[in-house]
Amino acid sequence: MRIVDVVRTLRWSGGIAVVLFGVVPAVMVTLLVAGGNTPRSVGLLLVPGIPLVVAALVCAVRSITNPDPESSARWMRRSMALVAGADVLMLGGNALIRMAGS
Q1: What are phi and psi of 66, to 5 degrees?
Q2: Distance CA 90, CA 10 (A)
Q3: Is residue 46 within 8 Å of residue 30, measured between CB atoms?
Q4: What pTM was computed for the model?
């Protein structure tokens, strides 16, 4: 009997989501700060935001490479939670700082 891993495509989709919703916004905010298109205080949001995205990437990789579906799901949930926290911190903080500055 052959066991089919039905979660495999979800693992890869979760990894792609971490890149799209974690890495890309972090790079965009970094480029905004480096280009001077946003207040300098937004750069302070990158200090905790980037480690959250890196931790999310590590969790996503552990989820993708883990053969146990339940353990893999736990790692992916952690990864998604870290990405959500990083997005709220960096993008939400950027929006709040911009609104307060204008």
Answers
A1: -80, 125
A2: 26
A3: yes
A4: 0.88
